[in-house]
UniProtKB/TrEMBL annotation:
This is Adenosylmethionine-8-amino-7-oxononanoate aminotransferase. The record marks Y15 as: Participates in the substrate recognition with KAPA and in a stacking interaction with the adenine ring of SAM. It is found in: Cytoplasm. The gene is bioA. Pyridoxal 5'-phosphate binds at G110, S111, D234, H298, S299. Its cofactor is pyridoxal 5'-phosphate. Catalyzes the transfer of the alpha-amino group from S-adenosyl-L-methionine (SAM) to 7-keto-8-aminopelargonic acid (KAPA) to form 7,8-diaminopelargonic acid (DAPA). It is the only aminotransferase known to utilize SAM as an amino donor.
């Protein structure tokens, strides 16, 4: 039996229970921007496998570091014990983050990094003896699949079955010149009991690669900060070079109080999340009163293998060569965006850093399961180019090692799709 057939008998995949969903493709190997199936076919990973493989697949340096750490220590409980990879990673990562990030808390993925940030901000105010319970978030946001993360995310097909179990959040539209003053006024109304504002900086990923006006976004953050509202920058998608700078928050003046990271953190190897914060936040938890402790910890918190991988990935990421690759992709994306904007079936072509996104004119923006999405999924699967639609939005978010020839192949496949999608 093939891997796909054996899989179908025993595995429940994300989002693919629909009877019409095709069997998953069995992948046996990865190299650079390519993945190979059990029959030797190659697939061009144009979305870095859910935006994680920033250095491509099976990078030799990361493989070497995995082996090195595996020979020493696989795991140790992180309450009361520590180890070199966890400390070194925090020492190297905190100074390159925007704002004054001075403490780092380890968790398991993007959703748990968000949970930790929410729990920290809520308890921060309690520890300081102040009643601040309201959380602000953007209306179209996506911050993860766990209950806290779903609560601060858009109410959508993803949350529908659970909406009544989610906590109340005050949602704001993304900022633009024509709504900025209204947004500021809404914040003024709620300022006295607002604990924190959580947001995806510069661009909403799962919400359809929605890019905001940077100046308006910064003004909104500045307004929150003036009211003492804690700012949580969810850089799970934007972090590690996606938006043109190392971290998206480098492009605004207002510093975040906390940052959540995952995805590119381990370069597409083993899942891990981190939540970073200022000493101001951390110090509110330091006390002889045990009840001021943050009661949160995962069995695999700061797993040494994962930390060693993140460290190797960070080293690669901070090399000038990696920045040059990102600049190369950005230049190619921008040139393609100019060309693509002339296509009659395309609208809202946008690019930022290594992200390129556009909408197909006839598609429904808000439906995950519309016919167009089904067609796009099937078309690119057959072309062996890994591109997935978000509603009627298609985006490219490649690993930084993608070659110029491979980028051309992705762009060409988009033109080919546009010639066929109405047939
Ligand atoms: N925050 C953002 C901005 C994300 O894009 C995602 C995942 N798409 C998450 C949080 C959740 O991360 P994970 O899937 O690792 O739980």
């Amino acid at each position: 039996k093939s891997l796909s057939e054996r899989d179908k008998a025993v595995i429940w995949h994300p989002y693919t229970q629909m009877q019409t969903a095709p069997a998953p493709i069995g992948i046996v190997r990865g190299e650079g921007a390519l993945l190979f199936d059990e029959n030797g076919n190659s697939y061009l990973d144009a979305t870095s496998s859910w935006w994680v493989n920033i250095h491509g697949h099976a990078h030799p340096y990361i493989t070497e570091k995995i082996a090195e750490q595996a020979a020493k220590l696989h795991h140790v409980i992180f309450a009361g014990y520590t180890h070199e990879p966890a400390v070194e990673l925090a020492e190297k990562l905190l100074p390159v983050l925007p704002g004054s990030q001075q403490k780092l808390f380890y968790s398991d993925n993007g959703s748990t990094a968000v949970e930790v940030a929410l729990k920290m901000t809520i308890q921060y105010w309690q520890n300081k003896g102040q009643v601040k319970t309201r959380i602000l978030a953007f209306r179209n946001a996506y911050h993860g699949d766990t209950f806290g993360a779903m609560s601060v995310s858009a109410r959508s097909v993803f949350t529908r079955a659970f909406d009544e179990y989610l906590f109340d959040v005050t949602f704001l539209d993304v900022p633009a010149p024509d709504n900025l003053e209204a947004l500021k006024a809404a914040i003024d109304t709620h300022a006295s009991d607002t604990a924190a504002f959580i947001f995806e900086p510069l661009v909403q990923g799962s919400g359809g690669m929605v890019m905001y006006d940077t100046a308006c976004f910064d003004a909104l953050l500045q307004h929150c900060r003036a009211h003492g509202i804690l700012l949580i920058a969810d850089e799970v998608m934007t972090g590690f070079g996606r938006t043109g700078t190392n971290f998206a928050m480098e492009q605004v003046q207002t510093p975040p109080d906390m940052i959540t990271l995952s995805k590119g953190l381990t370069g597409g190897t083993i899942a891990m999340g981190v939540t970073t914060c200022t000493n101001e936040i951390y110090h509110a938890f330091l006390s002889t009163d045990k009840l001021k402790t943050l009661f949160h910890g995962h069995s695999y918190t700061a797993n040494p293998l994962t930390c060693a991988i993140a460290l190797a990935s960070l080293e690669l990421f901070l090399q000038p060569a990696c920045r040059q690759e990102r600049e190369r992709i950005n230049a190619r994306h921008r040139a393609f965006a100019v060309e693509l904007a002339y296509h009659p079936d395309v609208k809202n072509v946008r690019s930022l850093g290594t992200i390129l996104a556009f909408e197909i004119v006839t598609g429904e923006a808000d439906s995950y399961t519309n016919d167009l999405a089904g067609f796009l999924f099937k078309f690119f699967r057959e072309k062996r180019v890994m591109l997935r639609p978000l509603g009627n939005t298609l985006y490219i978010l490649p690993p930084y090692c993608i070659t110029d020839e491979q980028l051309t192949e992705v762009y060409d496949s988009i033109y080919e799709m546009l010639a066929k999608y109405q047939e």
